[in-house]
Every structure is written in C-alpha cells, then in structure tokens.
C-alpha cells in the first residue's frame, strides 16, 4: 500500500566505478524511488545492460534510435523528478559543460528541467586538471549539483582525490536537491477520480461526464512531491500512473467500501470524483423493457464525504469538489460554502460546468474556499496547475 512514486533517472558514464552505481541503484530503491538507468555506450565496458535491467526491473534505453515514436529523450526528461549521473567521467562533464547532446543521456540532460546531481569519479590528475575544474565551475553556475569526490585509494596503487563516494553521501545530496519539491514526503493521500456508475440492468447505468483528468493530475502531482498516493478511480480511461496504488471501482458503494478501509490510514482525502447521487432501488439482472423504464425507482446514494468526515481524526484533511451550473460567482460561493460546512470539509473547489465546460477538458476555472472563508479565485488554468495550487493549500493545512 501507498508506495512512493518519485522517479529518478540514473545516468552511468564510462568509469571503472560504474559497478558502485549498482549499489547506489539498490539504495535508491530502498529509499522508495523508481529508478530508470541510462548507461552511456562506454560504461557498458564496465557494467552491462542486462545487469541494469535486472537490478532496476525496468527496460533500459541507451540510444536515441529505439522506440523513436515514444521520443524517449523528451519523455524521460519530463517523467523523472531528478537526474543523477554516477559516475560522471571527465569526458561527460566536458560534454555537459559544452551543452553537447550526442547520445541519449546527454539529450535527456539538455531536455530536462529537473534537478541534476553529478557524481564525478576519476583519477586525481584528471579531477584536478584545470579543464575539469573549469567545467565543474560552469556546471555549478548553471545549477548542477556536483558532489565532491572522496579521497583515498584509486584503481591501481595511486592515492588521492577522485574516488566515487559512498551511496549514503550521494543519496543525501539527492534528498537535499529534492527538498524544495518534497513537501509531501511521508504523507499518505487518497485521491478519488472519475465518475461512479450505478447499474440499472446489464446494459444501462446512471452516470456522469467526469473524465477523471483532475483526479489523475492531483495523483501525479502529489506523487512527484513525495506523497504516498492511493488513487481510487471510477470508470476512467486514463493511463495508469507508475508508482502509486490504484483501485478501480464502479459504483458509489464500492468507492465507499474502499475508503472506509483506507481513510483511517491517510493524512488527507481529496474527493475529486463525481459520485452519482442516486441508484436504482432494484437492479434487474435482465434488460428492462422500454415500457418499464419510466417506473424506475431511485434511492439516494450514501454521501461518502459526509460519512467519512464523521470518523475524521485530528489532523486529517478532507477536500471536496463541487460541479455546479451556476454562473453568478456570489451564488457559486454561497452554494460551495454550504457544502463545505454540511460535509465538514477543510476545503472545497467549486466550478461552473454549465454548457459542457470543464468535464473532459484539460483546463479548469473556479473557486477554492476553506473553512476560514479564505477564497482563491482560480482563472482558467490547466488541471495540472490547479493540482499544484490545491496541494500547496493542503501542505499549509497539514502543517
Ligand atoms: O453534494 P455534491 O455532490 O455536489 O458534493 C460534491 C462532493 O461530494 C465531491 O467531492 C464528491 O466527491 C462528494 N460526494 C460524495 N458522496 C456523494 C456525492 C458527492 O462524497 N454521494
């Protein structure tokens, strides 16, 4: 339950200490990271591709010409929360300082905006060479984090500065680099997404137009800020997010059953799912004839948020969503505030979905309202951006 979804890209360049990165990979995994390894061609003289695939449990890409349709250098640059290159040879440092991109790893580095940690390891003379010193200075000025190599025995009989440091020292540098975006580390967050469906017969259901995009955006953002995320998703067609727990449900009652079990163990619940308000009284195992459809009897579904807020422990945060068809902002605000109070929520995001707006779209606009009556007017922004704004609010409420 609740694995941590942060992803790290481990670049390995061609130095003898590449074998030490096998231990680094394991320690990063122990730390809860998903690790993709990108070795340079030269590094394969020291550690083979199969070793990296076996240790990481993931496919290893090395060149720009495999799976080209997935544009691996761009997708890997975007997907990873941090890049660490260990060992970083003098040649690789020179290439990065020059902004060159002649293989997969250097392309990814140029394309990525994530924090980058370099772990130089080489003979003392190479490390102290003014060319290397200048390259390291240039890279530091550009924001690369360069871990100082250790001093000690080199390959052969030499002794000096240039040794590959212990994995713990590298992981400390990685943790420090991630601190700015690690404000949800150690927090367990449940996020619901999509829209529940209430079956009428084997063919028909009562449902709604929720696509699940906002819930998935929240899950992705929360995982990359270090949270342990459990996504409870109803009838969405979105691709799975790696590294988070996903439970698929269909109906409101199934969603409630999962949340009844999981809610006591989480720090926050974000209910972005659109839960069907009613279900049919008697589900029919056989198709109901057209003539009988107008006699369908409906009954209200349980209100999941209301039922869970009654069991809320001190410190737990509940965030609700409300989709309305109200264009007047004051009325929208009053309506959402009433819902926030009636469901004992800490915060609610309300939006006006009239005319087919927002459901299924990549953008959203609305109001964020909290218990202290603070209101944030959200102009039209992407659902990814809203996810980060809501999580910023959540972090401040979690304390
Ligand atoms: O009352 P309304 O359906 O507008 O409230 C919306 C919020 O309440 C959403 O966060 C939704 O996930 C949640 N909800 C619920 N159980 C229901 C209906 C809605 O938890 N039966």
What does this protein look like?
- The protein has 399 residues and is of the alpha/beta class.
- It folds into two domains: 7-181, Flavin prenyltransferase-like (Rossmann fold), CATH 3.40.50; 188-398, Rossmann fold.
- The protein has 13 helices and 19 strands.
- The chain has an eight-stranded mixed sheet, with helices on both faces.
- The longest helix is centred in the C-terminal third of the chain and has 16 residues, at 383-398.
- The mean pLDDT is 94.
- The protein binds cytidine-5'-monophosphate.
Mean pLDDT across the residues is 94
Instruction: Please indicate the count of domains.
Output: 2
- Profile the largest sheet: 8 strands, mixed
Low-confidence stretches: none
- Tally of separate helices: 13
* Shape call: elongated
Distance between the amino and carboxyl termini: 24 Å
CATH topology of the largest domain: Rossmann fold
* CATH class value of the largest domain: Alpha Beta
**Adjacency order of strands in the biggest sheet:** 12-11-8-13-16-17-18-19
- % residues in beta strands: 15-25%
Total strand segments: 19
CATH architecture of the largest domain: 3-Layer(aba) Sandwich
Query: How much helix, percentage-wise, in residues?
Result: 25-40%
Q: Radius of gyration, Cα only, in angstroms?
A: 26 Å
Structural class: alpha/beta
CATH superfamily of the largest domain: CoaB-like
């Amino acid at each position: 339950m609740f694995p941590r979804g942060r992803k790290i890209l481990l670049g390995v360049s061609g130095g003898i200490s590449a074998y030490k990165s096998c231990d680094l990979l394991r320690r990063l995994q122990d730390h809860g990271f998903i690790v993709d390894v990108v070795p340079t061609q030269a590094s394969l003289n020291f550690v083979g591709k199969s070793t990296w695939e076996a240790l990481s449990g993931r496919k290893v890409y090395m060149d720009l010409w495999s799976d080209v349709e997935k544009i691996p250098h761009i997708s890997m640059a975007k997907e990873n929360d941090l890049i660490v290159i260990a060992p970083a040879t003098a040649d690789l440092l020179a290439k990065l300082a020059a902004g060159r991109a002649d293989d997969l790893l250097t392309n990814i580095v140029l394309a990525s905006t994530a924090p980058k940690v370099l772990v130089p390891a080489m003979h003392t003379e190479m490390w102290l060479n003014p060319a290397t010193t200048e390259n390291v200075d240039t890279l530091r000025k550009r924001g690369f984090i360069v871990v100082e190599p250790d001093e000690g025995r080199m390959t052969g009989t030499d002794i000096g500065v240039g040794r590959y440091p212990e994995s713990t020292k590298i992981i400390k540098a990685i943790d420090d680099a991630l601190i700015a975006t690690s404000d949800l580390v150690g927090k367990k967050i449940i996020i619901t997404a999509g829209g529940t469906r209430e079956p009428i017969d084997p063919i028909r259901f009562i449902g709604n137009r929720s696509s699940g995009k906002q819930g998935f955006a929240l899950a992705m953002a929360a995982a990359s800020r270090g949270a342990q995320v459990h996504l409870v998703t109803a009838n969405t067609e979105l691709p799975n997010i790696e590294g988070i727990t996903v439970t698929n449900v269909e109906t409101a009652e199934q969603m409630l059953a999962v949340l009844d079990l999981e809610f006591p163990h989480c720090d926050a619940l974000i209910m972005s799912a659109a839960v069907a308000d009613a279900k049919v009284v008697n589900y029919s195992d056989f198709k109901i004839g057209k003539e009988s459809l107008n006699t369908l009897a409906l009954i209200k579904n349980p209100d999941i948020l209301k039922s869970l807020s009654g069991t809320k422990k001190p410190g737990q945060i509940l965030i609700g969503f409300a989709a309305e068809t109200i264009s007047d902002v004051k009325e929208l605000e009053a309506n959402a505030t009433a819902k926030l109070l009636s469901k004992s929520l800490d915060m609610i995001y309300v939006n006006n979905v009239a005319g087919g707006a927002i459901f299924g779209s990549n953008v959203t606009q609305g109001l964020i309202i909290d218990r202290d009556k603070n209101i944030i007017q959200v102009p039209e922004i992407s659902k990814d951006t809203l996810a980060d704004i809501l999580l910023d609010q959540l972090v401040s409420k979690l304390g």
